[in-house]
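If you are new to this repository, start here. Below is one unmodified record pulled from the training split, so you can see the exact layout before writing a loader.
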Amino acid sequence: MNSGQQFQGTLNYIFAHWPEYVLTYAGLILALIFMGISAQRGWLGYIPLTLALVLILLYFLLASLWAAHWQFDRNGLRPHLTLFEMARLKQPDRFVYIDLGLRRRPLGLAHYITTGHITVIDIYNPQWTPSRSLARWRSLITPPTADPRLTWLSGNFDLLPLPDASTSVVILCQIVSELWQDGDRVTLLREVRRILTPGGRLLIAEKVRNQTTWLTAGPAALSVPTTTYWRNLLREAGFQIRQERSLGGFIRCFNAAKQTASQIQQLAFNLDLGE
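And here is the target side for that same chain:
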């Protein structure tokens, strides 16, 4: 594997978020220029402050690249493989992978099955997932080659193109957070619940706000939901969390089961009683 393939995820991430990297790089250059001018004109009081700014910008630049590497490169954390493992899928199993048209992760999972099948549903819609970085990332993707292990479908987050109770496993890897509205996120999870068989499982991985996120993203970590947020969202959508796993300190994986109508009713009854 050459270095280009090894760091392809990081390179794609940089391209998708290039305005942020350009601004950071420009800030570094301007700070260095100002520090040089300060030294030349004898403004010695500004030099330590400017140097501190340079170090802070450089730190967050490197931290961002490190986080991108561990999230998206082949030698990184690979949360989609962790979800596959948590699902305990067997070779003949069939499951659904909900994507945003990036294709890389379902293609990677296809290498781990021979007789099974993955139905990939692309729910991308610029109205509901308006991130420009996501749109730039999608522009890099080439049409997939034919593979009998993969079926590619298009759908909407509020209407997945599958009938009720038609699959036993659904995988969502860093997808739900791309929907900016909380209501849209719940709607997607309820649609997943609709297509799951009774007792079917949802495997979901999302970035969470914790100490690692603060260290790598700084103030931008405020936009990242907490682990408690994701737990509450899954419960609101009618899922019971069976297993959790932390990856690298900033990605949380959940194995959640579809609750039956009677289970949801019983949970509401228990909450009313204050249990």
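Two things worth knowing about this chain: Strands lie at 94-99, 117-122, 150-154, 167-173, 196-207, 239-247, 251-258. The chain has two domains: 3-72, 79-272.
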